[in-house]
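Re: that chain you flagged

S.,

Sorry for the slow reply, it's been a week of failed gels. I finally had a moment to sit down with the sequence you sent. For the record, here it is as I used it:
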Amino acid sequence: MRKLYFVLLILMAFIAEANAQWTALNVPRSNYETYQSLAVSDDGKNLFSYMSDISGKAYLVSSHDYGATWQTYEQLKVGYSFPTAPVASVTTFWDGDVLYYVSADMAFRKSTDFGATTSILSSTARSLSFPVLRLPNGNWYVGDAGYNWLSTDKGVSWTQTTGGIYGITYVTANNGNMVALQNNTVIGYSSDGLTWNKSTVPAGIMGGGNTPRLSKATDGTILAYFYSTPTSFVLKSTDNGLTFQLVNATIPTNTNIMYFYGNDIIAADILGTTYKSVDGGSTFTKINATKLLNSISGMITNGTNIYLFGMSGIYRYGGGVATGIATSQSANKLTIFPNPCRDVVTLQTDVAVSSYTITNLQGQLITQNTLPLTNQIDVHSFSKGIYLFTTIATNGQQSTVRLVKQ
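Prediction finished late last night. Pasting the structure tokens below so you have them in one place:
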């Protein structure tokens, strides 16, 4: 009897630990809300969703404190449509504290007050139905249906370009290349978003089915997941997207989404069960023993954490996020030298860093990127002055130091 009791205790502890990996955010749950889209800022502080409830009302909801509190803005009906509600969730994104999205009236909108009000940047945004790729040089790029568009002024104006990969998902490789994937096995890489080269993929592989996904591990490995019927498959690249190899993976049935989290892989099926792989995708084990959501709308990653959303809530996976502009330096021991600097700075930190941002004292973003393997960053083109250098660790921890450019 004691042995059985002991076994039950171990089983209960295992279940509690499994479910503890997902953290429920404090979203409204009064009337069977369904969160139909989600955008999360790079640092995890700002979140935005289009939500509807059982009565048929539609809302825009946003949080700018990591999901602790939410602001809700009801969208008035015009007939049966919601003219200001975002309809292309992949085109909804944050650039720092500024929100951008495409609404049902095909307008590309911008909000500087976390979604409370918006201004129209472009009244015809049919070319913006795929994700916007934000390049390290500050330019924005989007590809769609045979056309490519480039913006040098954060979405105010767009110039049509030629060639390219019409990406529906992007990642930035460790060498700075942008890697894009179309709705098949066409994958490409570019250093500037204008000149593209096709990646080499295994012969005979045919993509299809639901939207494929790209994500990048802490060690720089890029994963491409294709959910299709009857066979789904995983491709990986260890050379910054130049070539991809087929992974001999045992994928759980009906798994339609898959992302890297650190060097592990998190997957979700269409029924709400999530899985984890610690061996590069060869095998998967269940994370949640009980169903998290009544139905799943989707799962996304901001490169640091993974978010699951749908009917009845939004969940965040992982070790949490930062809770302010600067985390205690004693926890991270972030050091940059030389400081003051002129040309190149070197980063030293006690934790694995997934990305960094550099802003001026007015909060304007100067640059953002993944951390190079050398831990060295070129700042020779920066104007003289004081900057805030912020690192985002793979566990969500955020640390900031002042950087003086001479």
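What I noticed first: The longest helix spans residues 2-20.

Talk soon,
D.
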